[in-house]
Design goal:
alpha+beta; Ribosomal Protein S5, domain 2; binds alpha-D-galactopyranose
């Protein structure tokens, strides 16, 4: 069952009909995400602890008998008209949708075309995985329209492949997996090697807590070279560590004690790979510590892990920027804040803050008062609700062909 506000559905259906002259038959919805902890660990085969949030991409579509993908967005100008047999990256937002069609095709799935209209509430470039949400919504829509027999896990992996191979951002599997497998009031513990997912209860409300996203207003471009460079630096660290531990495949296989014992292998020119490894290895350990702390409902320990994660991302992984550091420092100055850190790929985007709900107003006020002078711009602060993963279904429209009583489901 896809549940979206009537007003939003009306807007989507209206725009769809205006452009394509037809009502949509399919509706797919895929959430963005926060990541409680486990940053830059996914492409090192490590552990992550993300959760799906109440910011999403909704896509409505009409299947076509041919092999064209026509797609428009309520968030962007223009209509893309693409031939599924001649797909090529364009640098535009619709590459994420085209890339999914491309990845499905390359995996041997025969697709019908689609006319599609999307609308998103995941801020673009805010570090909340707007791209994964678009990919997953597109994949679910194609899957239903073309009656594919494909598992959700494979769809998530194909979405990642779309981003890796078509868009050219060598992202890990975290964002696509949580967009597919998210659960209300749970974080998803994902082992990025085995791809096993385990829901971990996140009873924030019961404990009077909230998770708050602060968008720094600094747009990050993940396809930019720094993210891909971090991957190479991690591979460089693994190559050095193999001198002592030939059995390791990647940084997932290295414990903090192993890394300490091998630090002599890193010469003066290898300090960057050493620092990157220190972040990844310690971050994997923090994911496990956070899960233990959650089991004990030790929220102070969860908060400490968030502060430590930020310091590690800033100092060892070098993916922070002054604006993000400023948001974390402002958070630190507010009583009742338990922890905060950079979230997502970095180089801008958002922070995640864990706080007592009753200090949400003072926290928001502190950001409004201090951030503009420190950063020369404004930040957007919003608490998030933890929701379930992607859905797809048929749009059911009323007799007069108005989109009332939408009851899509699968
Ligand atoms: C981006 C990528 C993810 C992950 C994070 C960093 O969000 O899409 O795969 O690597 O950065 O944790």
């Amino acid at each position: 069952m896809v549940e979206i506000a009537q007003a939003r559905l009306q807007l989507l259906v209206g725009a769809h009909r205006q452009t394509f002259g037809q009502l949509p038959a399919i509706i797919a919805q895929a959430p963005g995400r926060i990541n409680l902890i486990g940053e830059h660990t996914d492409y090192n085969d490590g552990f992550v602890l993300p959760a799906a949030i109440d910011r999403d991409v909704v896509l409505v579509a009409t299947p076509r008998p041919d092999r064209r993908l026509r797609i428009q967005s309520l968030n962007a100008e223009g209509l893309a008209d693409l031939d599924l047999d001649e797909l090529a990256a364009s640098g535009e937002w619709h590459d994420y949708a085209a890339g999914v069609a491309d990845a499905l095709g390359r995996a041997g799935y025969r697709l019908f075309g689609l006319d599609a209209t999307v609308a998103g509430t995941v801020p673009l470039g805010g570090g909340l995985s707007s791209s994964a949400a678009l990919e997953v919504a597109t994949a679910f829509a194609f899957s239903l329209a073309s009656d594919l027999s494909v598992t959700e896990r494979e769809l998530a992996l194909l979405c990642q492949r779309a981003e890796n191979d078509f868009v050219g951002a060598k992202v890990g599997v975290m964002d696509q997996f949580v967009s597919v497998f998210g659960r209300p009031d749970h974080a998803i513990h994902l082992d990025c090697r085995s791809l096993e997912t385990r829901p971990i209860p996140l009873p924030l409300g019961e404990h009077g807590l909230a998770l708050v996203v602060c968008d720094s207003g600094v747009k990050h471009a993940i396809a930019g070279g720094e993210y891909n460079r971090r991957r190479q630096e991690c591979a460089g660290a693994v190559a050095i560590l193999k001198g002592k531990y030939p059995e390791i495949l990647n940084l997932r296989d290295v414990t903090p004690a192993m890394l300490r014992a091998a630090s002599g292998l890193f010469g003066p020119d290898d300090q960057i790979p050493l620092r990157r490894a220190r972040h990844v290895v310690s971050e994997n350990a923090r994911v496990e510590q956070t899960i233990d702390a959650l089991k004990r409902a030790d929220w102070a320990a969860v908060g400490s892990a968030l502060w430590a994660s930020h310091a590690s991302l800033r100092d060892d992984y070098a993916v922070s920027v002054p604006e993000i550091d400023a948001l974390v420092e402002i958070a630190r100055g507010v009583r009742g804040v338990l922890g905060a850190r950079l979230m997502g790929g970095g180089f801008g985007g958002s922070t995640l803050t864990l706080l007592h709900r009753d200090v949400l107003d003072p926290f928001t006020a502190a950001v409004a008062a201090e951030y503009p002078t420190r950063a020369g711009r404004e930040a957007t602060v919003y608490p998030v609700t933890i929701v379930g993963g992607a859905r797809v279904g048929w749009v059911e429209l009323g007799e007069n062909e108005q989109p009332g009583g939408e009851t899509a489901g699968n």
